[in-house]
Please model this.
Amino acid sequence: MQTYVSLVKFTQQGLQTMKDKGVERAEMVKKNAQALGGRLVQAYYCLGEYDVVAIWEFPDNKAAMQAAVLNASLGHIQISTMPAVNRDEWKKLLRTTIGKKR
Model:
């Protein structure tokens, strides 16, 4: 499984309906990803430019893109999703690309 990071902002509609539907929608987002073979690793609710940072695992870019589009189409969030690699993978990539052994 590949790792993805989503940066999420609540829309005005999402904020206005948060009290009545916030938890329900969060579960729906999670279930939508599961239906596409994905898994929510962790979600962090934040102060600042983004309201949520979510860490996902998906089988491939296509599934990650489908989940992002599906979840954004619900109307309560704007979402930007990007592939990510962990530190150990990054170090291997650098060694392969640059040829350094550190």
Remarks:
- The domain at 2-98 is CATH 3.30.70.1060 (Alpha-Beta Plaits).
- Strands lie at 2-10, 39-45, 52-58, 77-84.
- The first helix runs from residue 12 to 16.
